[in-house]
Amino acid sequence: MKQPTPFVQFRNVQKSYDGETLIVKNLNVNIRRGEFLTLLGPSGSGKTTSLMMLAGFETATSGEITLGGKLLNNQPPHKRDIGMVFQNYALFPHMTVAENVAFPLFVRRLSKADVKEKVQEALSMIKMESFGHRYPAQLSGGQQQRVALARALVFEPKLVLMDEPLGALDKQLREHMQMEIKQLHEKFGLTIVYVTHDQSEALTMSDRVAVFHKGEIQQIDSPKVLYEEPSNAFVAQFIGENNRLFGHVESIDGQHCKVRMPDGQQLSAQAINVSAPGEQTTLSIRPERILLGAAAQQCDNVAQGQVRDFIYLGDHIRVCMNMCGSSDFIVKMPVSQFDTSIKMGDVLSVGWQSQHARALDLLD
Predict the structure, then answer these.
(1) Rounded to the nearest 10 degrees, how much is the dihedral formed by the CA atoms of 264, 269, 275, 281?
(2) What are the residue ranges of helices labelled H in the chain?
(3) What CA–CA distances, in Å, run from 218 to 9, 40, 145?
(4) Is 1 a residue whose pLDDT tops 80?
């Protein structure tokens, strides 16, 4: 059965500003119609440059970018039929809310009657019908971002691009806006490409997440797969909280391996990114997968660790431990399951199943 043509496609796209250093290296990614794809990574990883090439504000050094099967490389931004939302809102301060939202429609020469109708629909969509006469300076940050969103959607673009749109908002408002954007995506079947360096934001909102590092996609998957099944040490460390233990591969048996720790202990893990006995590896174990005390004795891997500190975080407690050569090994446990008799300095059994330990490459 023939696969449908991707709605957005990057084919062997590269970007260099000086002709030598590649900011984006051989980017190949297909985006489905109606998908919410987030480009996630640290500063300088190439995610924003990739978005700007798609928008038309940057030109690819080589490769092809298509939208709906049509080549975009030589198309100016205003002819790409793409909506754009920036972190700084980019609203015109001398225009009212209604005028800001109407601007893309006037550029496209719609009639005044059509403009009025579409602006009202857009303001209704963001629940700001009564704010049309106000100016941006009279709005809160969250309200300004809603207006910027309405302006990006009012002309019914094929694609919506968002560059760190919630970065200037406080935590509570940011989380509220995350849900609003996600609801609009689902309600109207929007295709959204979203850039952020906030991994919790990416996990909350996206159908898929592309993790960027040094100009390349390290892994592109659903949030659950990225978190539970990172393909390398960078993804494991960048997505969520992660414990890293360093050792040497003792043996490999199909999809499983044995890893020897610096203290001589042998631990079992999934062989994900290792190829031969003797090589160095990073064991990746999520803090919530670890058990303490008597419960640990039922696990495939059992080691001894010393309690170094407790951090109370309301719904759960983080136990910091010295273990297997690591001084910052974290165990995350719901408050209701925590043994309150545990004290700092205690030496406890620490256990986890081999299916929850991944033997990966060394983080460079």
Answers:
(1) -50
(2) 47-55, 97-107, 112-125, 141-153, 171-188, 199-205, 223-228, 233-238
(3) 18, 10, 31
(4) no
Quick one: average pLDDT of 275-288?
Answer: 94
Backbone angles phi, psi at 257, to 5 degrees: -150, 165
| Measured distance CA(209)–CA(193) in Å, rounded | 10
DSSP 8-class letter at 79: G
Asked if residue 218 lies in contact with residue 212, where contact means CB atoms within 8 angstroms, the answer is yes
Strands (E), the chain: 8-16, 22-31, 36-40, 62-67, 70-71, 82-86, 159-163, 192-196, 208-213, 216-221, 243-253, 256-260, 266-271, 280-285, 291-292, 301-312, 316-323, 326-334, 347-352, 357-360
CA 195 to chain centre: 8
Judge whether 203 and 223 are in contact, CB under 8 Å.
yes
Question: Structure tokens of 215?
Answer: 């100009």
Other CB atoms within 10 A of residue 46 CB: 22
Q: Does residue 202 surpass a pLDDT of 90?
A: yes
Phi, psi of 327 (to 5 degrees): -100, 0
What distance in Å separates the CA atoms of residue 242 and residue 231, rounded to the nearest whole number? 14
Q: What is the pTM of this model?
A: 0.90
According to the model, what pLDDT value does residue 2 have? 57
For the packed helices 97-107 and 141-153, what is the interaxial angle rounded to 10 degrees?
A: 20
Between CA 97 and CA 69 the distance in angstroms is 35
How far apart are the C-alpha atoms of 298 and 34, rounded to whole Å? Answer: 45
Cβ atoms within 10 Å of 287's Cβ, excluding its own: 18
Query: Distances from the Cα of 231 to the Cαs of 196, 240, 267, 271, in angstroms?
Result: 20, 14, 19, 11
Q: Residue 161: which of 91, 58, 85, 72 has the closest Cα?
A: 85
